Amino acid sequence: MECKKLNIWTASSFFLFLTYPIFLVYPIVTVLKQALIHEGQFSLANFVTFFSKAYYSETLVNSFKVSITATITSLVVGTLLAYLFSMYDFKGKKFLQILIIIASMSAPFVGAYS
């Protein structure tokens, strides 16, 4: 059986695979620890405080309303556009497809700038 050399891409992939949990799991565990430990003991007091204040519960409900509305709107518009692009040929079809792709690609850049 031949032993393959470890190239730079394999080594860097392995390194990223090992360091990824540090940047993903550690922050999540830290936040959960802060939320679930109150005065040195396991407690749900922080959640009770959060949900008992009207300001926070209203904010949470409003966030869900906006999320659900945006999701339904995106589904309807996306379904209609998919049907339109697949069934009909019209002038400017390629241009509109490029605009949709650009809008999809620009979202991470806008988030990175903000």
Protein model, in words:
With 114 residues, this protein is mainly alpha-helical. It has one domain (24-113). The chain contains four helices and two strands, in the order αββααα. It has a two-stranded antiparallel ribbon with strand order 1-2. Keywords: Cell membrane, Membrane, Transmembrane, Transmembrane helix, Transport. InterPro entries: MetI-like, MetI-like_sf. One of its GO terms (cellular component) is plasma membrane. Residues 60-114 form the ABC transmembrane type-1 domain.
Features:
114 residues, flat, 4 helices, transport, mainly alpha, two-stranded antiparallel ribbon
Strand content: under 5%
Give me the number of helical elements: 4
Give the overall pLDDT as a whole number.
88
Secondary-structure element series: HEEHHH
Distance from first to last alpha carbon? 53 Å
Cα-atom radius of gyration: 24 Å
According to DSSP, the number of beta strands is 2
Protein name: Iron ABC transporter membrane-spanning permease
Domain ABC transmembrane type-1: 60-114
Keywords: Cell membrane, Membrane, Transmembrane, Transmembrane helix, Transport
GO cellular component, one term: plasma membrane
Helix/strand layout:
Blueprint lengths: L7 H29 E2 L2 E2 L2 H8 L1 H34 L5 H21 L1
Antiparallel strand pairs: 1-2
Short description:
The chain has 4 helices and 2 strands, in the order αββααα.
